[in-house]
Amino acid sequence: MSLSSPLLLFLAAALFSAASPYEMWNKVTLTHHWPSTFCSMEHCHSNISYWTLHGLWPDKGNDCNSSWHFNASQIEDLLPEMKKSWPDLLKPTSVSFWKYEWHKHGTCAAKADSLNTQHKYFSKALELYHKVDLSSILKKFGIVPSTKYYSFSQIEDVIQNFYSIKPKIQCAFLAKNTDAQALGQIEICFDANFSLLDCEKHSGVETVSKRGWHQLDDVSNTSGFKVCDHDTPVYYPPFS
Asked: 101, 103, 156, 187: which one is catalytic?
């Protein structure tokens, strides 16, 4: 007796799921960029005076579904906010940055029902970005762009005390033999229920480096962003 068509489909789906190399993620990292630092590294121009989104990264998998193409029409209602909060600092009129983030990270985040469409993925990233409100919190506690230097602990303590979690703070050296590191990237982490989480838990997202959006996760490039040195003064460059 032959198997019914619905049962065959069920068994095929089960086999595909079991064979999938990408596990369900435990943590997502909301990554913020400081535009002045990034553009000093990449020779772009930005007059943005607030922290912008870089991405929402699950801790397991990259490029999980190459056939799931980015479609800007599916997030058309989000585009005005995307352009403001999640801008492409290198190509302001292009969607290539969002396309890259979707292909590399969004298709993996989509293993969760809460993020299983392009609209869900990008809208959740924007929601978390506004929930964290990093620019306002730093400013509220006196951490503002300045020509003076901060200690690493001053910045970390503000974030850690306000959100009650440990962030991942990354810096870059903008010139050789400089006496300070430039604040460039701050990661805030969430569990699968989007509750705040220490970034050191279930770690799967690595150091970010420079050379454009498409190589920002290339840990072999030591000239880009790295976890800040705790003993080196931190420069939080004013926007130009």
From this structure: 101
